[in-house]
Amino acid sequence: MEIAVIGIDHNKAHINIREKASFATYSSREKVMDELAAKGVEEIVILSTCNRSEIYISSEDVDRFIPYVVDIYRKATGLMDIEKFLTVMREDVAARHLYRVAVGFESLVLGEDQILGQVKEAMEHSIKKKYSKKILNKLFRCAITYSKAVKTKFKISENPLSISYIGLKKLKNEVESFENKTVLIVGAGNIGTLALKYMLEERPKKILMTNRTHNRLKAIVQETHHIVPIPYEKRYQYLAESDIVISATASPHKIFTKENMPDIKKKLCILDLALPRDVEKEVGDILGVKIFNIDDLKKVEEESKGYRQKILKAAMAEMKNEIEEFICWKAGAKVDPLIGYIDDKCKKIRKETMSYIENNTCISEEDKVSIERFLTSQLKEKFKKPIINVKKSQSQTQLMGLKDYLSLMAEGYGE
């Protein structure tokens, strides 16, 4: 089984392109996974974050299926030349990429808190839909375990690093202080609740909050008494009294459009942390309104570049060992069905041999036990070396030859 990842991220594609292929909802991911499975792809995981969407696949011949994945991105974005915005990686390069993503080395900010949860969520959703199986389950679990270890060892997450936190820093540079400001937060998911947490520390004059589903908002209000819940359908009405809007929903459509905007009579800063974006870009044409989106936070990447390189260099040796272990495991997994067949064959041989001995000789129970132990050890020894060679083999031709040899050995023993 081979692995590959095909994806689009903030390094190669503007948010205008990324939001069209974000696969942010479960239903959109399931549609893609169903389509690829129908083509014959055996395992699929889709990772969707505010900075990237990536489709991980595993099959016997991934090169056969990569064009199908590229076509999915082409249809989603409407770009015939989508290839120039995509990154395609295979085998150990693909595995290394996921490890880097899980730790946060590929994020706008090193060690960004949310990415590990998003990697885990992508894996769990695919497992639930029975699209992530032995190979991708192992890869994602190894990457998650590695990420936790690196974050702990290098204390990457000691400081609050997240898109929400960086976004608030950007806003603070714009408005200087939140003290006399009214803030409207739209969206009660992970990003929205993190934005609320950081904003509470800034002590603004008032925090308004709304969410499409009331139950989630109600739970937050019960935990936090310093916010004012407002009906989602009245969100436009409250813009007039707001100085700052932070929007982070999972809506596939724009929730703030220029056509529906009220008369804005004072400066209004909008931080749009959603992908696809929540705010129509034309809203920024309104006098006094300024919009910041995820791509506007990119300069933070440069600010943390030196620290990022220092940590990455220290972690690379461990990452290399982890990847090598995974690739070796994956090579061995190719012959697991054959090894299972050989194991069953050995059990059958042992059972038939012992049955023959019991029916045709008069030996003690103690001797029977000794004979069975000897027979078991001899069968294991006979197959041990070729099985080890099969697991270590990196050559597809050599692997097929060893598999055929083992099959013939097992068949011969049964005759």
TrEMBL record:
Residues 6-153 form the Glutamyl-tRNA reductase N-terminal domain. One of its GO terms (biological process) is protoporphyrinogen IX biosynthetic process from glutamate. The record marks H97 as: Important for activity. Substrate binds at T49, C50, N51, R52, S107, E112, D113, Q114, Q118. The active site is at C50 (nucleophile). It catalyses: (S)-4-amino-5-oxopentanoate + tRNA(Glu) + NADP(+) = L-glutamyl-tRNA(Glu) + NADPH + H(+). It comes from the Bacteria. It is an enzyme of class 1 (oxidoreductase). Residues 172-300 form the Quinate/shikimate 5-dehydrogenase/glutamyl-tRNA reductase domain. Pathway: Porphyrin-containing compound metabolism; protoporphyrin-IX biosynthesis; 5-aminolevulinate from L-glutamyl-tRNA(Glu): step 1/2. NADP(+) binds at G187, A188, G189, N190, I191, G192. Its EC number is 1.2.1.70. CDD domains: NAD_bind_Glutamyl_tRNA_reduct (cd05213). One of its GO terms (molecular function) is glutamyl-tRNA reductase activity. Residues 319-398 form the Tetrapyrrole biosynthesis glutamyl-tRNA reductase dimerisation domain. Keywords: NADP, Oxidoreductase, Porphyrin biosynthesis. Homodimer. NCBIfam families: hemA. Catalyzes the NADPH-dependent reduction of glutamyl-tRNA(Glu) to glutamate 1-semialdehyde (GSA). Belongs to the glutamyl-tRNA reductase family. During catalysis, the active site Cys acts as a nucleophile attacking the alpha-carbonyl group of tRNA-bound glutamate with the formation of a thioester intermediate between enzyme and glutamate, and the concomitant release of tRNA(Glu). The thioester intermediate is finally reduced by direct hydride transfer from NADPH, to form the product GSA. Possesses an unusual extended V-shaped dimeric structure with each monomer consisting of three distinct domains arranged along a curved 'spinal' alpha-helix. The N-terminal catalytic domain specifically recognizes the glutamate moiety of the substrate. The second domain is the NADPH-binding domain, and the third C-terminal domain is responsible for dimerization. This is Glutamyl-tRNA reductase. It comes from Alkalibacter saccharofermentans DSM 14828.
